[in-house]
Amino acid sequence: MLRLLLLALCLLTIVPAVSQAQTLRIALREDADLLDPTLARTYVGRIVFAGLCDKLFDLNEKLEIVPQLATGYEWADPVTLIIHLRQGVTFHDGEILDAAAVKYTLERALTLPGSFRRSEISSVDHVEIVDPATVKIILKSPSSPFLSQLTDRAGMILPPKATEAAGKNFAQAPVCSGPFKFVERVAQDRIVLDRYPGYWDAANIHFDRVIYQPMPESSVLLANLRSGTIDLAERVLPTDVAQVKADPKLRIVTSPALGYEAITFNLANGERANTPIGQNKLLRQAFEAAIDRQAVVDVVFNGMYQPNAQAVSPASPFYIASVPPPPRDLAKAKALIKQSGVPTPIVVQMNVPNTPDRAQEAEVIQAMAQEAGFEVKINLIEFAASLQAATRGEFEAYLIGWSGRADPDGNMFSFLTTGGGQNDGHYSNAVVDAALTDARKSTDLAARRAHYETALRQLRDDLPLIYLESPVNIVGMSAKLTGFRPVPDGMIRLQGLAVTK
Question: How far apart are CA 269 and CA 297, in angstroms?
Fold first, then answer.
């Protein structure tokens, strides 16, 4: 405890001196990965991008798509999207944001090695410049979720000249068009952005500097929140909510989340896939049967999360009510193991990001699985490093969450289709590929639901992922902060945020 208190006090002096009234300090659950929208994949990285990089479109509190860098759009036909751009917008280096920049950014997302945006916008056939303020995107086939992809990193427009000049080093000093420009980054310590005076919506920006600080240890985060060293914590653990609410200087804001927590299995990504649980679906089914989701939610998340067995939350219109999360069935788990013919104990190495809640969740799952005959060995690893290990196939099982997207395609396609950009386990099934592709092409809600149900029922048999629960966004902040908008995507939008005197 003394070590944690000393660490909390040290945080008072690790950042450059700037007037408290002009600086917003935000605590992140972990450090971000690459600050390049094309190559990034962390949730907290998206929060940093919310201050650094504007998008073509954004989401409001009702998850409606609203213009940001764009002023509007229309579909000329089912495969031709015309976007009208906001004029007078500049990047942080002064370069003009125009249709050429949009074309460059989308083509970079489709062609850059390692791009995590490629599968998100893979329906793009080509991009045409109509005039400097108008861009035409032609798709290979109709795509219901395409516009929603432009509300996130795929829609963050980059300056062609600066991006090309930086090359592989772009993420070290990124240039975008958001309200704040990059100043410095110290790994595992801070990311500092300063207000960009040329921002097109400058009247809604009320801070001169924003500092993002990773604080994975919840006790350190709470100490800093209470002392006023940080102004906002993008996530407060459910078990800490009561303590924050009890402090009159603080407040809690919750909103439904769009994502999920799950265990991903390595089925075909390198040598680490050659394990009993990676090669035998009966063992994955047994592993799931050993898990009591409600107990996990009650113990680890103070009952605030919701057990789930799907990639979308029960609040989504695409939720399949006929596929509820199954209850724990230890007898079934043991029977499936016996049917597999694999002797026990069955060792499962599980990578786990080193945050307190995920570590505790892993320990609860470890204890449950042991009763069925599994020996789960927990490998705690820094979050960004865990993502890199997953990409390389250096895992057998991976306890990982996904922040979620407004359209279900964003929760499924990239993770579950053959060759998908975030399909770390290299799962491949023709039925799932066809269903998720057909769901993209359909514009009818009922038809899309039917395609997702087809995919889900195949996934329930294969279990490349075991979906565990749907989370809740829990933000803690100074009671003096005003203008915070709780959008279910969990992003911290800096427009409108201010401090009352």
Answer: 30
